[in-house]
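Lab intake sheet, docking and co-folding queue.

SAMPLE TYPE: protein with bound small molecule
LIGAND NAME: flavin-adenine dinucleotide
LIGAND FORMAT: SMILES
REQUESTED OUTPUT: full 3D complex as structure tokens
PRIORITY: normal
SUBMITTED BY: R.K., bench team

The fields below were copied directly from the construct record.
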Amino acid sequence: MRVVVVGGGIGGLALGAGLRRQGFEVAVFDRDADVAATGGYHITLDEQAQAALRELVAPDIVRRLLVSASALRLRDRDALWDRRGRLLGRGPDLTGDVSIDADRITLRLLLAEAVGDDLHLGRTVSGVGHDDDGTPHVLFADAAPVPADLVVGADGVHSLVARHLAGGPTNRPAGIIGFSGRTLRRDLNPGEQRRLGLRSGTAMGPRGAALYVGFLDAVGNAALDAPRLRMSVTTGPTYIWGAMFPESAATDSLRDLDGGQLQDALLRGFRDRGWAGHTLEVIARADPCSVAAFRFNAASTRAAELAPWPAGRITALGDAVHATPPTAGKGAGAAIRDAAALLQVLGDVAASGSTLVEAVNRFEAGTRLRGSEVLILAMRMVRLILATDTTFGAAATAVTTPILAAAARLRH
Ligand SMILES: Cc1cc2nc3c(=O)[nH]c(=O)nc-3n(C[C@H](O)[C@H](O)[C@H](O)COP(=O)(O)OP(=O)(O)OC[C@H]3O[C@@H](n4cnc5c(N)ncnc54)[C@H](O)[C@@H]3O)c2cc1C
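RESULT FIELD (auto-filled):
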């Protein structure tokens, strides 16, 4: 069976690796010319995502990922702060948590290595369709169509494949604009290093502003100790942060900026909302090249509304089906789980003689449930942030945060 995968991001590469390993004929096409040309933020992979990955790639790749990833169980409990940097509360005990944070570039490089020469970079797919005899194919503006037994759209949030299948967009803006960047811990003043600590945390303010500061230490907190196998891109203790504002005409203009200009505009946005200067140091000291703006897009949280098409020999996975805002840290994990589920049903076709379309139908039913599950989690945080942008929410935030801060001081 020949499978063509459109998109070599997290889900497409995971699928390509799994298919190749199981002996399927596969070709993965991605428009990027360089696998390392990808957002620089980190990806949390929970137990389910790691189990799926073990189904897809060789043990050596999993091992090298663990050696290059930061273990959540080794960092301190997460923190919740207000806009003045006062501690409001702590997250759950992470001691028994097996999740890891992997640098996105490292994860993509490892998956690409597993796909090997079945990955074709610099290849933008311009459309999908069927030959007269029903064989699906992918189209290129500058090359001949490529036919396949199955075409899989793993082409992300603006998926051309899912749009073709659904007859329109499969997600829409969630109302929040996000900004990401990375800051070396050693570049912060000692006071901020102490306050942020060896942990991740989130600061919430009124008027929909929030700042997530993720802690990544792929060396000090390596999930597996085998330094010679390490290939992490992030080598020193680093804060990888994500700032959030409600979308408005004012934030629209930010999306045209990048680098230092975007960083300055972001700092102004927080100062205008009354955030204390020291809480913004993590943004001010970031590498300007790492600062980027992106819109949160979300598909429906209802399983029945995901993948709204009859099963056929063109399907889709990951963000193409269930675009998930990063607020739960689950989107990439869901894409990897989709890939493992698709590999499993394709294996069943070979073993049990069920038809390809029946197998795709089973896969899509599971994808709807997985997508809905992660979207419900991610949208909870989105709604909480947006609620602080209402008159009542702003007042409630202003009244409750000093009380929570005082209670936290008493507790710690
Ligand atoms: C700041 C941020 C932080 C995040 N943090 C986490 C996290 O901690 N944990 C987590 O699980 N998820 C996280 N996510 C979400 C996660 O990145 C996505 O859910 C995940 O990457 C989806 O995988 P995918 O394979 O579906 O799509 P993508 O990884 O987006 O890949 C799509 C690929 O398709 C290619 N492509 C698109 N169109 C075409 C075309 N026409 N032709 C050829 N190629 C094409 C693109 O170049 C891209 O490589 C985060 C997202 C963001 C923005």
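REVIEWER NOTE: The chain has 13 helices and 18 strands.
SIGN-OFF: pending second check by T.M.
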